[in-house]
Amino acid sequence: MSRRYSIDDLLTLMAVLRDPQQGCPWDVKQHWDTIVPHTLEEAYEVADAIERRAFDELPGELGDLLFQVVYYSQFGSEEGRFDFHDVVHTLTDKMLRRHPHVFPDGTLESRRQGVSAAEVETRQVHSRWEALKAEEREGRSGPQQGEAEAVVSVSALDDVPRTLPALSRAAKLSKRAARVGFDWPDTDGVLDKLEEELGEIREALSAGDRDHAATEVGDLLFATVNLARTLGVDPEACLRGTNQRFESRFRHMERSLDAQGTPLGRASLERMEEHWQQAKRAERAEPSDPTMD
């Protein structure tokens, strides 16, 4: 049996790749900012493999994502800031603090006694989790080294990453706001807001004000994200599903028109719509995959 590599082997590999004399020229010239786009891409590739249920691909994709963590840890080690072991320690320590209902003494060895996981009240656990995260945010908001002491307000919206995709960030922002009571009382309120925003878009277009219309489109999208939240679904996942269906139907339309000898650009809208509806009917006739529910 071939040797199974360990995390220490991976750390050694990264250190060699970054070695100025013996390493890879591409890896040697990388820095914090150049790796970020790769990190985002790898995270999406993990999500894509899971959505496609391509579990045979997942170890490789997860490895690519882990490699990003190892990369940043190497940067930190080279600059004397932190290393991979600090990352592991910080993560484990944080998870122990956030799970007192599992590790009552805050140690990895401690265990909850006499209560099953099913008996732990989910709402209480979630509330405690959010309270601990709020404490952590407050701790990070204090004056940095060398700064004068100052009273710094802590926002419920702190630490929502600005680099998130817009839909995901909108979902996180609205979720944070809802936790402190800034929310519609029910789904009907969100639907009313959607209609209101759509009406404002119509007004702006009627007035010839395209800039205002663009602003209102943003408001409409934000309201749509809130609707997804109230339904308990992820707006990014919803849109990815729509993208997939659109692509599938469009390709069906292309193939059908091509089979009839009609170039796509010369087909009438009515004929394109006919084949589009055929694709939709074919989708409904296909058995659903229970793993995708």
TrEMBL record:
<dbReference type="InterPro" id="IPR048015">
    <property type="entry name" value="NTP-PPase_MazG-like_N"/>
</dbReference>
<feature type="domain" description="NTP pyrophosphohydrolase MazG-like">
    <location>
        <begin position="32"/>
        <end position="103"/>
    </location>
</feature>
<dbReference type="Pfam" id="PF03819">
    <property type="entry name" value="MazG"/>
</dbReference>
<feature type="compositionally biased region" description="Basic and acidic residues">
    <location>
        <begin position="272"/>
        <end position="287"/>
    </location>
</feature>
<dbReference type="InterPro" id="IPR021130">
    <property type="entry name" value="PRib-ATP_PPHydrolase-like"/>
</dbReference>
<dbReference type="InterPro" id="IPR011551">
    <property type="entry name" value="NTP_PyrPHydrolase_MazG"/>
</dbReference>
<feature type="region of interest" description="Disordered">
    <location>
        <begin position="272"/>
        <end position="293"/>
    </location>
</feature>
<protein>
    <submittedName>
        <fullName>Nucleoside triphosphate pyrophosphohydrolase</fullName>
    </submittedName>
</protein>
<dbReference type="Pfam" id="PF01503">
    <property type="entry name" value="PRA-PH"/>
</dbReference>
<dbReference type="InterPro" id="IPR004518">
    <property type="entry name" value="MazG-like_dom"/>
</dbReference>
<dbReference type="InterPro" id="IPR048011">
    <property type="entry name" value="NTP-PPase_MazG-like_C"/>
</dbReference>
